[in-house]
Specification:
There is one protein chain. The chain is 43% helix and 26% strand. The chain has 11 helices and 14 strands.
């Protein structure tokens, strides 16, 4: 009986790691006959797991059932889930904090002590940066994700940075997470162009709009595209600078919501950012502490010379 139970657990673990498994390969992995695999699959079905037979080469697939059956996690997966739940309990998605705490309590109750120590160590050495970003309702994220998946248009009111509210009809493509903020990359039907929207600033209207045929996305790397749009596009001054330092070092100083960084070579990168103030641009660039060359805007070079003279005078130079 013990041997059979252990084999069932191993079979379940295998089914969870891949979409489709030929019956012959399962039998080889488990060291049993194909007939034994069929019996074990029936036992899993009796326990509430939906195991479907696959067409073509005889095999099996773990399907979604009416109820969520127990999941088998390896050590790394268990640690990742526990840390993720702790983060969600503090997090930027409103409405799931209590649910995350309940799920975390169930998980930590069964975690081996060695894994519990790893989770505690990682969490105790991590300081969350709180404040600044408004939490997003979990239902809003779910509704947007479903519209992206089903190619359904979204209608929403959108509040811009100056508190102006406009009505939008968009074809949603992908959600992008940046720090504590969520963004929607979508094709704006009214403006006939791609846009990046802050999810905490939109208010969904119901019902959704009509279905649409997916368009070619604005970029292959949507995370980099969203970073460029939110860091420079909305501002009066769009700044393009070559920094004579590795891209990794610049990214460590300026997050994706502040600037977009593109490597040029091992020792240099192109930095794109924006601001409504030349003083603010100068501050960010000088605070990098790295050599740089300004390409645009034209007024920034003259402004930096003025600031350099003022600083030299203040220092008695």
């Amino acid at each position: 009986m013990l041997e059979t139970s252990a084999r069932l657990l191993k079979l379940l673990s295998l089914l969870q790691t891949r979409r489709d498994w030929p019956g012959s390969e399962l039998a080889e992995r488990l060291g049993v006959s194909a007939r034994t695999v069929r019996r074990d699959v029936e036992r899993l079905r009796e326990l509430g797991y939906r195991v479907d037979a696959t067409a073509g080469v005889p095999g099996y697939r773990l399907g979604a059932g009416g109820d969520l059956p127990p999941l088998l996690l390896d050590d790394e997966e268990a640690v990742a889930v526990a840390v993720g739940l702790r983060t969600a309990a503090q997090g930027s998605v409103a409405g799931i904090e209590e649910t995350s705490v309940r799920a975390l309590a169930k998980l930590e109750r069964v975690l081996p002590s060695r894994l519990r120590h790893r989770v505690n160590a990682l969490q105790s050495m991590t300081v969350p940066l709180t404040g600044g970003a408004a939490a997003v309702e979990a239902d809003t994220l779910s509704a947007i994700a479903a519209a992206c998946r089903d190619h359904e248009s979204l209608r929403f009111g959108y509040e811009s940075g100056d508190a102006t509210v406009t009505e939008r009809l968009v074809e949603p493509h992908r959600l992008v997470a940046s720090g504590r903020r969520w963004y929607l990359v979508a094709f704006d039907r009214g403006r006939e162009d791609w846009r990046v929207f802050r999810v905490d600033r939109l208010r969904l209207r119901t019902p959704n709009g009509p279905r649409f045929a997916p368009r070619e996305p604005p970029a292959e790397d949507l995370a980099a595209y969203a970073s460029r749009q939110i860091s420079s596009a909305p501002y009066r001054y769009r700044c393009r600078v070559t920094v004579r330092a590795p891209a990794e070092a610049v990214v460590a100083r300026m997050g994706p919501s502040v600037a977009s960084v593109e490597p040029l070579d091992a020792a240099g990168c192109l930095l794109l950012t924006g601001s409504n103030s030349l003083d603010e641009l100068a501050y960010w660039l000088v605070s990098l502490g790295m050599p740089f060359e300004v390409h645009e805007p034209d007024g920034l070079r003259a402004h930096l010379r003025v600031l350099a003279r003022r600083l030299a005078e203040a220092a008695g130079g």
